[in-house]
Write a structure and sequence with these properties.
alpha/beta, disordered N terminus, 8-stranded mixed sheet, 5-stranded parallel sheet, 16 strands, about 55% helix
Length: about 850
C-alpha cells in the first residue's frame, strides 16, 4: 500500500494572549508594571507546560502557545485568568483560542490558523477569553468545572476572507460583560459596503422598513437612475437584525438570459442543484423554517422570470421576504408596489453638496453658488444618478458652468416608448452630456467596454477594446484611458486576487452598449474579440482545474461568469458562431461541474447542438460527449446514452480517436449507473487502451478509478485497491484526487482496515481543503466511518450529521452501490447509541458550519488510537 505522503502539518489548538493597555501601564507605574508582568509571565509559562502546551513565540508581553488538545488550551486560559483576576490591580489580558491544521517548521508554526487566532485576540478585550467555533466544537461538554460558553455569533475579522464563529468562555470567577467585539461585521449578509453617505429619503426609508414587517414582497419601481437600488440596499442594511437567517443581495443586471435567474439566486444563497429536482424547488427547500430577506435588484429586463421565481419561493417558504427593484411591477399576488420618486429640493441639494465634496474636498454651498446648485438639481428633476454625474464635474467646472452646460444638453432629449418618461429623458441628457465631454479615444473605449458583463480586467480590456487598426486606440493606451473613465466617475475599480477589476454602473453600461450598437463596423468585431478572449481563458483554465492550483482557477472563472455567459450567448444567438460557442461551453465543463451549474452547461450544449449551423465534426463530437457526460452525472441515463452513442458513431466515421475515447468512457459510466457492470468494464477497458495510446493521463486516472469502483462494488476489494494504487504509481496527473482517496478509504473500510481508511480519508479532506472546498464532505464522511469502526460512536455521529449537511450544500448524489459501506457504518453507531442520543448528536453535527466540521474531523482523525 502506498501511504499518504508524510507531512509536518498537524491539527493543534493555538492560545494567543495579549496584555491590554500595557504601554499606558508602563508610563503610569513602571515598577509596579514590571512586577505584575513578571507574575503574568510566570503564571502563563507554568500553566502552558502543565497542560501539555509549549510556548513557541513571544512578542513583547504577548504569548503564542500550541497545544495538542483543545481542552488543555482552555484549562490554561481559565486557570491563568482566574489567577490574574484574584490579584488587586492586576493586568487585563485578552486571550484567543483557535484550532486548525498548521505546519511546524523547526520551532515555529505557520498557516492560516495563526492568522485567525491573532485576529481573534485583536477583537477581544482585557480579561476576555474567546474561542473560535472550531475549538468550541472540541471542548463542548468537557469544559472545566463551572465554565460555560456564550455564543457571540459570526464575525468578520480584519484580513480574514470568511466570517469566524466566536464564543466567549464564562466562569463565575471571571467578568462576563464586555463591550462588543472589535469585528468588521458580525451580520449574516452579502450586502456591499457603501462608499458614500445615504443622503435624503429618510421618510421613505422608515416607511419601507415598516412595510417589510408586515408585507412579504415589496417592489421599488421607477425609471433608471432614481435611486431604487441605493434605497433597497439601505433598507436591507437596516433590517439585517430582523432576519435571523440573513439578508442576501441578488444582482440581476448582468444577466442576459432570463433562464439564469434561479441560478443567480441559488449562487447568492449557496444552494446547489439536485438531480431530478427543479432548481426553484431546491431553493425553496433550503429556505424552509428560515427567516430570510432576498433583495432582487434590477428585475426589469428579466421581469417574467423574476416574477415566476418570486411567486414560487414565496408560496413555498413562509419565512421568506423579498425586496425587489424594477422599472415595472412584478405583478405577483400580494406585491406592494412602492414608486421611488425623484428627490425634492430639500434632499437633492444636500446630495449634490455631499458628492461635490467627495470630488473636490473643501467645496461648500455658499450664497454665491446656491442658486446655481438649486438650478442644477431642478433641471435634473432630482434624479440621483444625474445629480451625482453633475457633481463629478465640480473638479473642472463651477456650479454656474455646470448649470449653463446642462441648458445646452436638453436639446438632445428624445421621446417614445417606455423610455420616453420625462425623468428618463432627463437622465439620458445627463449621460449624453457626460459622454460628450469625453475625448474621442475615451468615447471609443467607453462604448467598446460595454461588451463586458460584470466587469473586466486590464488584460481583457487591452485585448478586446484595444485595436490600433480600427479607431485609434492602441492596447498600450487602454490603461490610461480606463484611468480617465474612473476619474470621471464613469467606471469603478475594485481590488481582487488577480489585481484591479473595473466595471460600469449598469445604467452607464446600457448607454455605452447603445453607442456600441450604433457602430455597425465595430460591434461584431468587438463581440468576437470578447468571445475569443474568454475562449482562450477557458482553455487555459481547463488545464489549471486539473492542478493543485485549481482553487485559484475556480475563483477566477467565478468572477468572469457573467462575461462567459455573454460570450456563449452571443455565439449561439441567431447562429452567429455556433462553433466557437460550443467550444467555449465544452472548455468550461469542468468548471460548471465544480460550481454546481451542470444544468446551465446542458442548456447551452443542447441549444448549440440543435442550431442549424455549420460546425466542424470534432467540435460537434466533443459537445455531444460533454452533454452525455453531464446528463449522466445527473442520472439522466437515457438521453446521456443517446448522445454518447451518436458521438461514438460520428467519431468513428471521422477517425476522431479522442472523440471515440470520450464516448466510450461516457457509455461506460452510463452502464455503470444502470448496474451493467460487465458492459461497463468492457467499455472502460477499450477506453483505457485508447487513453494510453493518446497519452491522456487525466482520462487514464478517470477510467482506473471507475474500474476500481466496479471491482469494489462486486466485492473484489484487492483488485479495487490495485487499480487505485496504479493511479498513484503511474499517473503524473490525478483527476479528482480527493475522490480517489475517498474510494481507497471505502475499500479499506470494507476490509476492516480502519487505520488505513483513516489515512486515506484524511488525505481526501486535506486535498479538498487545498484545492476543492466543494468536496470536503467526502473526507468528513469517511472519517466518520473510520471512527465508527473503532468504537468512537459519539464523535462518528457528530461527523455523520455534519457530512450530511455539507453533502446537501454541495448537491452531491451518491450512487446506490456507494451507500453500502456508509450505511453499514451508520448501522454500527445506531446499535451502539440509544435513538435519542443518536438523534441529538446527528442534529448537532448538522448544525455545525464547515469550519467547525473540518476542525473536528481533523482532530479526531489525527488523534491516537484510531
Amino acid at each position: 500500500m502506498q501511504a499518504a505522503p508524510e507531512s509536518s502539518v498537524r491539527t493543534v489548538t493555538f492560545l494567543f494572549t495579549d496584555v491590554e493597555g500595557s504601554t499606558r501601564a508602563w508610563e503610569r507605574d513602571s515598577e509596579g508594571t514590571s512586577e505584575a508582568l513578571s507574575t503574568h509571565d510566570a503564571l502563563l509559562a507554568e500553566a502552558i507546560v502543565a497542560h501539555g502546551g509549549e510556548v513557541f513565540k513571544r512578542v513583547g508581553d504577548a504569548f503564542c502557545a500550541a497545544f495538542p488538545t483543545a481542552l488543555g488550551a482552555v484549562r490554561t486560559a481559565v486557570e491563568v485568568q482566574r489567577a490574574l483576576a484574584s490579584k488587586p490591580g492586576g493586568l487585563e489580558v485578552r486571550m484567543g483560542l483557535h484550532t486548525g491544521s498548521a505546519e511546524r517548521r523547526d520551532l515555529d508554526w505557520f498557516g492560516p490558523p495563526l492568522n485567525r487566532v491573532a485576529r481573534l485576540v485583536d477583537a477581544g478585550h482585557g480579561g476576555q477569553i474567546l474561542l473560535s467555533g472550531a475549538t468550541r466544537s472540541l471542548v463542548e461538554g468537557e469544559l472545566p468545572e463551572g465554565a460555560s460558553l456564550r455564543d457571540l455569533g459570526e464575525h468578520r475579522l480584519k484580513d480574514l476572507r470568511r466570517a469566524l464563529s466566536v464564543h466567549q468562555l464564562l466562569h463565575p470567577d471571571l467578568p462576563a460583560d464586555f463591550p462588543p467585539l472589535r469585528s468588521l461585521n458580525a451580520e449574516r449578509h452579502n450586502l456591499p459596503v457603501q462608499l458614500t453617505a445615504f443622503v435624503g429619503r429618510q421618510q421613505e426609508l422608515g416607511a419601507v422598513r415598516g412595510r417589510l414587517e408586515s408585507e412579504r414582497l415589496i417592489t421599488l419601481t421607477g425609471p433608471g437612475g432614481t435611486g431604487k437600488t441605493r434605497l433597497a440596499l439601505q433598507v436591507a442594511a437596516e433590517v439585517v437584525d430582523g432576519f435571523d437567517d440573513g439578508v442576501w443581495l441578488v444582482e440581476l443586471a448582468p444577466l442576459s438570459d432570463p433562464g439564469l435567474v434561479p441560478r443567480e439566486v441559488a449562487t447568492a444563497l449557496d444552494v446547489h442543484e439536485e438531480a431530478d429536482r427543479p432548481l426553484t424547488e431546491t431553493i425553496a427547500k433550503s429556505l424552509e423554517g428560515k427567516r430570510t430577506l432576498l433583495v432582487l435588484d434590477n428585475c426589469e429586463h428579466v421581469i417574467e422570470a423574476a416574477a415566476r421565481l418570486a411567486e414560487g419561493l414565496l408560496t413555498r417558504s413562509r419565512g421568506l421576504s423579498i425586496l425587489a427593484t424594477s422599472r415595472e411591477p412584478l405583478e405577483v399576488p400580494g406585491e406592494v408596489v412602492w414608486p421611488v420618486a425623484p428627490l425634492d429640493a430639500s434632499e437633492a441639494v444636500p446630495l449634490f453638496v455631499d458628492r461635490a465634496r467627495t470630488n473636490r474636498p473643501g467645496f461648500e454651498l455658499t450664497e454665491a453658488n446656491a442658486s446655481a446648485v438649486a438650478e442644477i438639481c431642478r433641471r435634473l428633476d432630482g434624479i440621483p444618478l444625474a445629480i451625482e454625474l453633475a457633481a463629478a464635474r465640480i473638479r473642472a467646472l463651477s456650479p454656474e458652468q455646470i448649470a449653463e452646460r446642462l441648458d445646452d444638453r436638453f436639446a438632445l432629449l428624445t421621446g417614445g416608448g417606455r423610455t420616453a418618461l420625462p425623468h428618463h429623458r432627463t437622465l439620458r441628457a445627463a449621460v449624453d452630456w457626460s459622454h460628450d465631454l469625453l475625448e474621442e479615444p475615451e468615447r471609443i473605449l467607453f462604448r467598446r467596454l460595454a461588451v463586458f458583463s460584470g466587469g473586466w480586467t486590464l488584460g481583457a480590456a487591452e485585448a478586446v477594446a484595444g485595436d490600433p487598426g480600427n479607431g485609434n486606440v492602441a492596447p498600450a493606451e487602454v490603461l490610461d484611458l480606463i484611468a480617465r473613465l474612473v476619474d470621471k466617475s464613469l467606471a469603478t475599480v475594485e481590488e481582487t486576487e488577480e489585481g484591479h477589476r473595473y466595471r460600469f454602473p449598469e445604467t452607464l453600461r446600457a448607454y455605452a452598449g447603445e453607442r456600441l450598437r450604433e457602430d455597425e463596423d465595430d460591434v461584431d468585431a468587438i463581440r468576437r474579440r470578447h468571445r475569443d478572449w474568454f475562449l482562450d481563458l477557458a482553455r487555459e483554465a481547463k488545464g489549471g482545474l486539473e492542478t493543485a492550483d485549481r482553487a485559484r482557477w475556480v475563483a477566477r472563472l467565478q468572477r468572469e461568469t457573467d462575461n462567459l455567459r455573454a460570450a456563449v450567448a452571443w455565439s449561439l444567438d441567431d447562429g452567429r458562431d455556433v462553433e466557437g460557442g460550443l467550444q467555449l461551453v465544452v472548455a468550461l465543463r469542468r468548471f460548471w461541474i465544480r460550481g454546481g451549474s451542470l444544468g446551465e452547461s446542458i442548456d447551452w450544449l443542447e441549444r448549440g447542438l440543435a442550431a442549424d449551423a455549420a460546425v466542424r465534426p470534432a467540435t460537434r463530437i466533443a459537445a455531444m460527449n460533454a452533454l452525455g457526460s453531464s446528463l449522466g452525472i445527473l442520472n439522466r441515463s437515457g438521453p446521456a446514452e443517446r448522445w454518447a452513442s451518436e458521438a461514438l458513431r460520428t467519431a468513428r466515421e471521422e477517425d476522431d480517436r479522442t472523440g471515440v475515447m470520450d464516448a466510450l468512457i461516457v457509455l461506460a459510466q452510463v452502464a455503470f449507473h444502470k448496474g451493467e457492470y460487465e458492459v461497463s468494464t468492457g467499455l472502460y477497458e477499450e477506453g483505457l487502451a485508447m487513453a494510453r495510446e493518446l497519452g491522456d493521463e487525466r482520462s487514464v486516472t478517470v477510467v482506473l478509478n471507475n474500474m476500481g469502483e466496479i471491482a469494489r462494488i462486486q466485492g473484489d476489494l484487492e483488485r479495487a485497491r490495485s487499480l487505485y494504487l496504479r493511479i498513484l504509481e503511474e499517473s503524473p496527473v490525478v483527476s479528482d484526487p480527493e475522490i480517489l482517496h475517498f474510494n481507497m478509504g471505502q475499500t479499506a473500510i470494507e476490509l476492516g482496515e480502519f487505520a488505513e481508511a483513516r489515512d486515506q480519508f484524511l488525505a481526501s479532506l486535506r486535498v479538498a481543503l487545498e484545492t476543492n472546498p466543494g468536496y470536503v464532505h467526502f473526507g468528513i464522511l469517511g472519517i466518520a466511518q473510520a471512527l465508527a469502526g473503532t468504537g468512537r460512536h459519539a464523535r462518528a455521529a457528530l461527523l455523520f450529521g455534519a457530512a450530511e449537511a455539507e453533502r446537501e450544500r454541495a448537491g452531491w448524489v451518491f450512487h446506490d452501490a456507494d451507500l453500502a459501506p456508509i450505511e453499514g457504518s451508520i448501522e454500527t453507531i445506531r446499535k451502539a447509541l440509544d435513538a435519542e442520543e443518536l438523534d441529538e448528536l446527528w442534529k448537532r453535527g448538522r448544525a455545525m458550519n464547515e469550519e467547525e466540521a473540518v476542525a473536528l474531523a481533523l482532530q479526531e482523525a489525527e488523534a491516537d488510537g484510531t
